[in-house]
Batch of 4 targets.
Target 1
Amino acid sequence: MTHATGNAVWKNYPDTSTLINAARLNNDETVLDNLHTREYGGVTRTRPALFRAYYTGSFAINGTLYVQAGWTVDIDTDSAWTVPGAPTPSYYTIPYSGRFWDLQISFPTTSTPVDGAMTTKIMLNTAADQTAAIASDSRSTNGWEGNINCFRPCVPLVAGDKIYFSLWTSTALTVSPTFGYWYPHIMVRDAGPV
Amino acid sequence: MINAARLENAEVAFDRLYTSEYAGTTRTKRALFRAHRTTNWVISGDTWASSGWVVTYDTESKWTVPGGTTGSYYLIPYSGRVWDLYFKFGFSGIGGNNAAAAKLALAADVFQSIGSDSRFVISGETNVKAFRPSVPLTAGDKIYFGAWCSTALTIPPVMFGGVVPEIVVRDVGPA
């Protein structure tokens, strides 16, 4: 039997077929290094990158609204969220290469345009929802509660890529938390090696 | 004292980590399949993803394309795991009072679906996204991807710069 390390089953002395030597010890080290690299993105990392933010107040949407200032960051493992300040769009900078990323933005509203629509988009490198989107969601609306959830899994991105988020509704409305603690939120997470 | 039993403890811990994370001691990553379209896709009635999808990742080479309009499928490569299944397409230019739907199915048959999404169409863009996370599946299960709209339409290969019709199947861990 061979282990994941490549080492054979260890045997006690006086058997000399599995002597402890540098190569066999290094097999153990390498398998740990590989696990850290694959699971966390590097041998010195201890977790994959994760970013989550939400908005606890209310904001008006009138045409396309890019996510900008005012979002509460509850986790940003790599300090990659950049807020230039309103009205400039904020963005998440992909911190390292060679990985897939899950991307999400969602927002709720208690009332929606009659015979209207709500959309969200996730953009790559440019805050331009009509030309630079890499994910989109939309919902037709009819006056009642509206919830939209734009999610795209396993997007291959490289270090330095900037991820922007936008919201849109067919008529102006104000978005605020619904049903207690259901906030608009955004999420970016490392989903594993490419 | 360093002895074989203690060294084996460390080895077995590595083995278990690999089995848990990658589904086997000789594997080095989880299975992932990802494909999208680069050409128009005509939907008329129940339409199954068949030919014409560009595969960008298929770690286990499990995407099977019988050809023509016969439904293509992803063949689950090993047992004991849970899987995320994702199928998304979008369009615009369809008038009001229509609907569109997406299916994740165990056969090219909407009545063997294990995941579904539907959207009411008023105007503007429509995005249909069937996503079901952590589905327990076994080796040999076949996953088909179906689209439907109440009126025939053409799905464009890209919208808004980089929004594409897309299929993702990924191993997300032990069952």
Target 2
Amino acid sequence: MANVETMTINMGPQHPSTHGVLRLVLELDGEKVVKAVPHIGFLHRGIEKLSEHRTYHQILPLTDRLDYLAPMHNNLGYVLAVEKLLGLSDAIPERAQVVRVLLAELTRLKSHLVWLACHALDIGAMTVFIYCFREREHIMNIYEKVSGARMTSNYFRVGGLSADLPAGLEQEIRDFVNEMPRHIETYEGLLTGNKIWQKRIMDVGVISGEDAIDLGVTGPSLRASGVDWDLRRDQPYSGYENYDFEVIVEQGCDTWARYHARLKEMRESCKIIHQALDKLEPGPILADAPKVVLPPKQDVVNTIEALIHQFKIITEGFPAEKGEVYVGVENPKGEVGFYINSEGGPRPYRMKIRPASFVNLQALPKMVEGGLIADVVAIIGTLDIVLGEIDR
Amino acid sequence: MTLQAVVEKLKAKFGDTVLDEREFRGEMTVTVKKEEIVAVCTFLKEELGFNFLTDLCSLDYLGQAPRFMVVYQLYSIGDHLRLRLKAPVEEADATIDTVSGIWSTANWLERECWDMMGIVFNNHPDPRRILMPDDWEGHPLRKDYPVQGPDREPYQGRIE
């Protein structure tokens, strides 16, 4: 076509369906997207730079603020990396491992609920949003009982957990997880058979498995393109090898396939949570490493040794060996990794966070170009991005 | 294939290009000359199955030579292996060839690396800043860049 006049429009950063502060510059030929250029960085807080100036314990709260819909997963990736750096990986007590898996999977449910809620709302199905947030609120209450905070949990610690689960919470989680599959059926009942929903997401945002690997896409978005890869199974951490669950792979490569992949993943998460609750035995929650882990509060007020340890660890931090480690975990959005380079001393020399959303967002232009402008919103929703993690 | 076999094949193919190999906590790090980075990466992807570039970042060893180190985290989806590749970059010639032709993932990751550390990626398809504004001066993750930002007094409350 000769002499096609295109129009360039700006979408975001203040746009309800960009899930934060994402700005897209779209070049349009009528309703067709010719080119899409994402602009990011509006939420950049320099977390990697700040990490170089904080001790290992002090960095942990910063990781909550990456993917704020799945804070426990970021905590987990970070503490696993530090534990590997310290050579503590095998010293984590069983109870701490099980609680980590339990909460990580609850976090996955929570994150997927927000994904479904916002994805459906973006496309116009408002009812689902209300239902999903109702269930999310249950998980928020569990979060609050566990860590004292609804979103910035800061609960895991290098060496274990900051506190044990409060009494009676196990039953509450079990009740919730028993109910959850029924709720997922409700969401499916509202959406799957809905003709508008089908038309809006079938064959929209197609990306082949090959392209997805080339672009570094991870998580459910990759598995919905037919690539069978899940870090929980392929490079297990925190004892995931002891759980029986299925890695969900869909062949559709489109938004419809990603919708089904995530819903099925939520059911698998419920299965894992049940198993974790069965495995939960009383026991210590912190590794026996007095130079690294903070002593129990009870000891700090009663013994001078614990008080000295507490004081030294808080004021000086703990030194790590010279070396470098990378640990990746299967976040709800994809692989989140922490690369820590230590030159010795109580602070990392450099910490690089591998953000799942950042890399997944890079696939957006490929998915929207050639499609309709109305589908851009659906594709942003299906990629399930969080700008806190993209911009760091 | 094991990691050891990968390193052996790499050394057999590239010889002197491989400057160093190091194992720490079961993770293998191989340092190669930056001139050969594209050839090494192509070989790793095509012949040894490292089809996935997980991450790319850089380190600043201020006061040492060479000052910078570009770090590639590679993953093989077939064999479930991780390999870390490093390439030293001097301050006077802070450039390295792009690997975005091998893995498209590298496009944004290299942009971030340029933005944060000021390393130029030759032949990069889209060499713009990514996180900082386009008119920003300096590269925040360099060790000589103050943590509180330029032209501001350091925070006095910190005990160093």
Target 3
Amino acid sequence: MKKTFESIDAVSQALKKQKYICDRKLATVIYLAFQMEKPLLLEGEAGVGKTELAKVLSKALDRRLIRLQCYEGLDTHTAVYEWNYTKQILRIKMAEAHQECLDNFKSIFDEEYLIQRPLLEAIRSEAHGKHVSLLIDELDRADEEFEAFLLEVLSEYQITVPEIGTLKAKTKPLVVITSNRTRELHDAIKRRCLYHWISYPSLEKEYEIVTTKVPQIAEELAMKICSLMQQVRQMDFYKRPGVAETLDWVSALLLLNRNHLDAETLEETMGCLFKYQEDLERVKNEDLTVSWAEALRS
Amino acid sequence: MTNRGISSGSRNRPGDFVLNSLHFARQLKDKGLPVTLGRTLDALRGLMLIRLEDREETYSLFSTHYVSRPEELPVFDAVFEEFWSSKVRPATLEAKRQVQPETIPPLTLPGAMEPSADQTENGQQKISYSSQDIMRKKDFAAMIDAESQDVSQLIMALTRDLGLRLGRRWRTGAKGRQVDLRSSIRSSLRHGGELLVLRKKRRQPKKTRFVVMCDVSGSMDSYSRFLLQFMYGFQRHVPRVETFVFSTRLSRITPLLRMRKIDAAYALIEEKVFHWSGGTRIGSCLTEYNRRYGRRFSGPNTVFILLSDGWDQGETGLLEREMKELKRRVKRLMWLNPLLGMPGYRPIDRGMSTALPYVEDFLDCHNLDQLESFGRELQKA
């Protein structure tokens, strides 16, 4: 049974059930991507929930999530398919031992010897009527050549394995592409996708995220944490903390049984918010924990 | 944003809404957003999937089709706000304007790069060969406004070419460390499946990254415009490029130069970079680079390119220290100095002579020819 989204509101509700808070704008874009069968391209600072969204979407739609993590040097052998050479050699040797004819070697280029990688897996699932969602994570890390190849896959939804033939998806998988913008993606890719920039959440939204994800937290503390996060993100840090960092921090405070944010607590837990030595040094040198604690008290 | 309806009558008169959408797309295009017919058609198709009376849904529909980088969002927001609000209440348009004096920044070039009259229809300008030759040798500082348009295009062509050459994949040699099982098996089939030849493959060497840092202090005024154009083209056509401008302070402009249209990029830079045409403190700017960005952008694959005339007002000790640090952390340090084209120029002023021992390539960049030979040098690096 194919689960679908009936309306834009249904998207927000389904995601909320999975504890993902999304605003109407994002819900609209997701709905459009789903209905228009276009890939969704999500960009935003690290830790704002891009990858999380893909995971949650596939859960809400009851689809298997196939994930392709991109990195520099990613090639088609790791993204699409590879032949199982060891198995092929063994097969040849076996045939030799039994003096068996291998029928022009066609039999060792059979699907049995094919190692599926994420892209082929997604296309094949859809070709066999099983709906999946495909997450192409951090595409900006892959090389431009791979981007060009991906463009081809995303326009035809088919993959050709020379020895076997062409596989075409009957239905299009739900595709989510994320990028951290370490480099700009090519315009051609962007044209094919629906674009959405996920910014840092507003105070209200972040509060909702924190209280939904960590319901044990006291409301007042959650509010204080979120307002401090807003303030911190206004400042010029090397790497500003995202929502992921907020949630880490909240969990840490709960574990330590701290229910108010004094300078000492802040100082002890700053490692949850800042991951770079430069930022931590700055917090220390400028006594930011003291001034933040003071601001929170008033 | 409120959930106020965009147009009360729009549901009954979809034709108007479509027409308005086209006008809206046109305005976005005028403001420098990458509007294409394909995207507009897609957006129109999407109109059927949303509630037109819902402002946020309409906003999302258009922004997801017309915006493709965060820098474009403020431009989009301003046009969206103005266009769809004025369509609702034309009577109160004037009043609204007065309440909201916030205007959309005009995306024009700073300086005098106005498009000249003899442009052809598609915006491309025809340049005759003979004039191209002269242009290539002419000092940027001596260019008159009418010529700068031609030069911008030549610069773009030059960087595009450079991007193609630098992006070329490395050829896999016959020798290598790793066995290429794929092709070994393939070739073994010729010998009845006996692995006679082990094909090898060589790992593609780590790709080069570039950091370009351009001096925009007062003394560089007559060059910075062209060099900025060069940086724009360079970043656009060559992968893995980071760009900075500096004078007394340092600004990272990589995200700003990402705008699809150079005019829009210039407008953003004008808005965000305040230290234009100021003095020069190379040392302290390098300190800032090394401290804030060094970890991320400097590395054994980084080619660092400094564009500056070397007139430094800062402390030489600091400059020396930071040049040394920079040299230690990058693969190659190149310095392009437009003054090198001046007959009789010798790098003997304080700043330049301090920095020179740490520079591997000291090149000229005062005209197109020199920029091109810099490109060739880069390929070797």
Target 4
Amino acid sequence: MRDVAIIGVGQTKVGEHWDISLRHLALGPLQAAMADAGVARADALYVGNMLSGELAGQEHLGALVADFAGLRGVEAFKIEAACCSGAAALRMGYVAVAGGLADIVIVVGVEKMTDALGPDATTALAMAADGDYEAAQGISFVAINALLMRRYMHEYGYSHQDFAPFAVNAHRNATNNPHAMFRFPVTAERFARARMICAPINLLDSSPICDGAAAVVLAPADAAHALSAAPIRIAASAVGTDALAVHDRRDPLVLDGAILSTRRAYEQAGVGPEDIDLFELHDAFSIMASLSLEAAGFADKGQGLRLALEGEIGIEGHVPVTTMGGLKARGHPVGATGVYQVVEVVQQLRGLAGANQVPNARTGMAQNIGGSGATVVTHILERMVD
Amino acid sequence: MGVPRNWRLQQQRYRLVGEICEKCGARIFPPRDVCPECEVPAKTPLAFSGRGEVYSYSTVYNPPRGFEEFAPYTVALVRLEEGPMVTAQLTDVDAEQVRIGMPVEMVTRKVQGGGEAGAIVYGYKFRPAIGPTA
């Protein structure tokens, strides 16, 4: 196996891009990443996307994006793993370069959700759940997370208001991120007054429906310094899975897939939670942020929320999370999210995160969760010393 | 969902038929033909009692397509007395009265009302327990 490095990144501002089609949405960050890497060609293109078939009536994105990006002829596929399609695509790019089957690989995550009406997006997102035994009962993805949040509050004695720090932190960080959808701060008081969506989940517990695209370019690490002034090494790329349905899990309040995924990543990188300088976690809903912190070893069961309450998740805290706004405030264009997370970790490790720079960031982790925890892809990135 | 997809789930939807592992005795729902505990084949059918208790619950106001006529409706994770958990709607109860730990029992109700295939889909929902308890 070869070491793999990220030699270029690109991202589009997350938002409602009424004027841009799915294919063109992917092009901006793809070309920006290629320019950043200084490459004009690639051996393969992997497109992370979940909902193009349902919401845009368009599958077969690999060849489509390759063609419109001027890469006609290149090996290209769409990779789908629900909300972690983006990180899954990066994983496939990593496998190709690490295995010596490709030298330059482009990974782009893209999602276009706002062309659809709300109920259609709700229906499409529910496809990440078990079709016969969850979605067939009329459950929405918000409701699945509401079931988890209510039980978490019940078992550990938290109030809903205890979750406010996740939204406050995410919005504070998004304020300084030009690519974020919600560039405004929110207060704990505003969290308390937010509109209830699916009790106990309110609007500020939830990530938005939006459009976005982000891209990275991969190369063998031993060639990276010749290609890039600031390559970032992928120290670990790991996947864990669990039952698709929450009701089939060993314990619904434990993300076994995330535990497996992080454990494998820590082993591969030779690090532990104490070595992680920042953690881009999957805060699709605030309950998922808590469960992620626990599964990744930053807190004991039921104590992930405690970290947030004690102020440890901020830029200067013990475990900075969602440093550029996270899913909550940067936005969650589902199949693109995993690539955004990795692009943001690269920004941090390059020292280009501006006002949100985590001091002396050397090692960062990004974790993208598919569905309610059935597929979890973790990447650990490190600054390379020439 | 199309007619065949619902038709082939009738044993699960109407009678909560799962499986029992002959090796370790685990009760399995939904059926998967392999025991999730000991990972050996498990194909012996077992009809569940339909009794259980609410593990967690919420109310859906913004339903997916096909469920509009029921909204708002309360959904729950129900821990069956045999061990497994199911995701289902609650019925015959006001949302405000639902509590974690509340005993419930399975009933057969309309789950989806027609749609393009034109077939009404019946299946399990759970109501507060009024039948004999175990």
